[in-house]
Structure formats: structure tokens, C-alpha cells
Write a structure and sequence with these properties.
single chain; alpha+beta; Butyryl-Coa Dehydrogenase, subunit A, domain 1; Butyryl-CoA Dehydrogenase, subunit A, domain 2; Butyryl-CoA Dehydrogenase, subunit A, domain 3; four-stranded antiparallel sheet; three-stranded mixed sheet; 12 helices; 9 strands; about 15% strand; globular; disordered N terminus; binds flavin-adenine dinucleotide
């Protein structure tokens, strides 16, 4: 499947698209439909991605990964969604491993990164969100109390995806009570939990609109070794923020993939479906929303590449990464709406896949960060308007 990208692509990116297209050909839309109905995890697809090195794309070569730039890796996620598949159940590893790579100890890097690159270990669970704190991350209450040669964790997380299909979990917990720190962003710590070795964790699956294997997680006196701490105690929030630009750019790429899939499906259906003795796409009322969606997806892709290029050049890219995520999520949602409308009643029929992808792409208005929080970041940090919270 070719990509109507706005850029002249490098050979590597063309090869990556070809590789993902070949993998996706073995996991057609029917596969995703079946999993969606059964709320099942795409084990076979994840194995295929892992074997071809796709999920170790960002792990440096010295640890057995591909050592790709973020822009190149983003092509993998984009192309998964471009094929009508769903990168959501697998994408976390790409942005969570950055915390281990950048802030982990030599020992943590040596212990975990080769296994993550080879697929022996999965780092797909990232536990931040809590019921009472919501978007206000620094208000989380899950606590890790120092005890002898380790920590004891108590608390609750919500909406934590892929827990049952991951070996490792990145966990954000409070190590110093909020009342004892100057700023609420202090006193939070990041841990790399080997879930195969802990007891006291209860995982309760949630019945969600999208199939990301999403759970509530309860920590009841969970004892973890001190060696699970990433970087310095109390600096976990900074480490999480540090990974957010990569996360935003990768999600933007997924949305671009979704958007292109919707536009292609909508334009081809509008060209072949005949009502009133002519193709419905001959009516400008049908044609224009699809054309508009295409324009918006391609415009969002420009911001995605601007953000990715800055990231890979080690330049500040917070504004661009956030804007790319917002523009791409809006564009894919607009494209989803146009595709659903174009398909009429058939858009609601599972066998056309539009309704599944419609639900999947809607998520990106809310997670991993909601649109309002991006607007507030741009208002406050880019445009220097007054802080609202
Ligand atoms: C399918 C799915 C998978 C997820 N996977 C994970 C995961 O793996 N790990 C993880 O940690 N989390 C995960 N999440 C959680 C996700 O990151 C949160 O849902 C998201 O950050 C929003 O938090 P909330 O749901 O508590 O919404 P709230 O914070 O309660 O916000 C509700 C609404 O109010 C708006 N709002 C809140 N405060 C303001 C304000 N000050 N100004 C303007 N608007 C505001 C928000 O934008 C939002 O639209 C997942 C969520 C879903 C749905």
C-alpha cells in the first residue's frame, strides 16, 4: 500500500512501510474485527512485529535493537493504522522504553533492553492515571514507601492498558507526601516493575469502547526492590514529562495513518456506490467532506514531521509535538466522520470496519492526553497567557 506522503521519503522509510504492509497482509481487517468482538489481544500480530524488529525500533543497536530515529519509528505505527489495523495495543513500548534508556541505570539498561528488543520481555504497561487525580497527574496518591532494601506500594490506578500482556510496567508513584514538598511535581518517582516477580497486585479488566486491554490495577502492600527505581527518587514526574514529546509524535503518526485509511475507504466507496443512478461521490455534498478531511490529514502530517525532525535533531519540540498530536487527532476524527457519513448505513456494519476504526480514532481526543490539556499547554507555555491550573 503506498503512502501519499507530502515528503520525498528516505529509502529506509519506504522499506519500513513495505515491511509493515507485508506484516499487515497476514493480519487482515477480519483478524482485527474478531479480536475487537472478543476483546482479545493481538498476540500473533505482536509476535510478528517483534520478530521483524519493529517493536525494538527505538532500542539502540548495542542492546540488540534497530537504533532508529523517532521519525523512522513513527512510520511503523502510522503504517499499521494506515492498513486498518490498530497500533494501540502495541505502541506503548516505543515510548516507555525511552525512560529506561535515558534515565535508567547501566544495570537496568543491560538487564531489560536486550529482552525488550528481542521480544522476550514486553514493556507495554505504563501506569500513571488514577481515579481521583485524572489529568492532574501530580495529585496521584499511589504511594511507594521506603522499607529496608526496597519499597512497599499501595494505591490504585485506572485505565491502565496491556497489563495482562506485558512483563514489565512503568509505574509512577509518590515517594514523598505532597504536603512535604515545595511543588507537587516533586516527590514522585518512576519504577520499572517486573510484574512476574511481584505479589499483591490485582488487575481488573474494564469493559471499554476500544480494545486496548484496559484495566484497573490495585496495589496492596506490593513489595518491590530498590533496584526497580528509575533514576533518582523524587524526579519521576520530570522523567515522565521527558518522554511526552516522543509519545505525542508517535500518536500523531498513528492518527495520520488512521486519517489516510478513512480518506481512502471513503473516496473509494464514494466512487463505486451508485444511488439515483450515479456514484454518490459525484455529489459535491459527499465529495467535499472527504476532500476536506484529506487536506486536514496532510496538513497535520506536515506538523508531525516538523516535530519529529526537531526531536531527532535534539532540538526543543514541545510546542510542535503537542500541536502535531492535536492537529492529527482532529484530522483523523474529521476523516472518520466523513467516512462514516459516506458509507451511510453500511458505516455502522462491523464488516466494513469503519465503525471499529471510528471508535479507535476517537480515543485520541482523550488519551494519552486530552485536547483541552494540549490547548492549555499551548496557551500557557507557547503563547505565555495566564496559567489556568
Ligand atoms: C482506552 C484508554 C486507554 C488508556 N490507557 C492508559 C494507560 O495505559 N496508562 C495510563 O496511565 N492512562 C491511560 N489512560 C488514561 C488517559 O490517559 C486519561 O483518560 C486521560 O489522561 C484523561 O484523564 P481522565 O480520564 O481522568 O479525565 P479527566 O482528567 O477527568 O478530564 C475529563 C475531561 O475534562 C477536561 N478537563 C479536565 N481538567 C481540565 C481543565 N483544567 N481545563 C479544561 N479541561 C479540563 C479533560 O480535557 C477531559 O476532556 C487510558 C484511557 C483510555 C480511555
Amino acid at each position: 500500500m503506498s503512502a501519499p506522503g507530502a515528503f520525498i521519503e528516505s529509502e529506509l522509510r519506504g522499506d519500513l512501510r513495505g515491511l509493515v504492509d507485508r506484516i499487515c497482509a497476514d493480519f487482515p481487517n477480519e483478524y482485527w474485527r474478531r479480536l475487537d468482538r472478543a476483546h482479545a489481544y493481538p498476540e500473533g500480530f505482536v509476535d510478528a512485529l517483534t520478530k521483524t524488529g519493529c517493536l525494538g525500533a527505538l532500542v539502540p543497536e548495542e542492546y540488540g535493537g534497530q537504533g532508529l530515529a523517532l521519525g523512522d519509528a513513527s512510520v511503523i505505527l502510522e503504517q499499521i493504522n494506515r492498513n486498518g489495523a490498530n497500533a494501540g495495543p502495541v505502541h506503548a513500548q516505543m515510548y516507555t522504553m525511552g525512560a529506561v534508556l535515558r534515565h535508567g541505570s547501566d544495570e537496568q539498561r543491560r538487564t531489560y533492553l536486550p529482552g525488550i528488543a528481542s521480544g522476550q520481555l514486553r514493556l507495554q504497561a505504563f501506569a500513571v492515571t488514577e481515579p481521583a487525580a485524572g489529568s492532574d497527574t501530580t495529585s496521584i496518591r499511589t504511594a511507594a514507601r521506603r522499607d529496608g532494601d526496597g519499597y512497599v506500594v499501595n494505591g490504585q490506578k485506572v485505565f491502565i492498558s496491556r497489563v495482562q500482556h506485558s512483563d514489565l510496567m512503568l509505574l509512577l508513584a509518590r515517594t514523598t507526601p505532597a504536603a512535604e514538598v515545595e511543588k507537587k511535581s516533586q516527590g514522585l518517582s518512576l519504577f520499572l516493575l517486573d510484574m512476574r516477580e511481584v505479589s499483591g497486585m490485582t488487575v481488573r479488566p474494564l469493559d471499554m469502547m476500544v480494545n486496548h486491554e484496559t484495566n484497573e490495577v490495585f496495589f496492596d502492600d506490593v513489595r518491590i526492590p530498590a533496584s526497580a527505581l528509575i533514576g533518582e527518587e523524587g524526579k519521576g514526574f520530570r522523567y515522565v514529562l521527558d518522554g511526552m514529546n516522543a509519545e505525542r509524535i508517535l500518536i500523531a503518526a498513528e492518527c495520520v495513518g488512521d486519517g489516510r485509511w478513512f480518506v481512502e475507504r471513503a473516496s473509494s466507496y464514494a466512487t463505486t456506490r451508485e444511488v439515483f443512478s450515479r456514484p454518490i461521490g459525484q455529489n459535491q455534498g459527499v465529495q467535499f467532506p472527504i476532500a476536506r478531511a484529506h487536506i486536514q490529514v496532510e496538513a497535520a502530517d506536515l506538523m508531525r514531521w516538523r516535530a519529529a525532525d526537531l526531536f531527532d535533531a535534539h532540538q526543543p519540540c514541545g510546542a510542535e509535538a503537542n500541536m502535531a498530536k492535536l492537529l492529527a487527532a482532529d484530522a483523523s476524527w474529521e476523516a472518520a466522520n466523513a467516512a462514516l457519513q459516506t458509507h451511510g448505513g453500511y458505516g455502522f456494519a462491523a464488516e466494513y470496519d469503519i465503525e471499529r476504526k471510528f471508535r479507535e480514532t476517537r480515543l485520541y481526543q482523550v488519551a494519552p492526553i486530552s485536547t483541552n490539556l494540549i490547548l492549555s499547554f499551548v496557551g500557557e507555555h507557547v503563547l505565555k497567557m495566564p496559567r489556568s491550573f
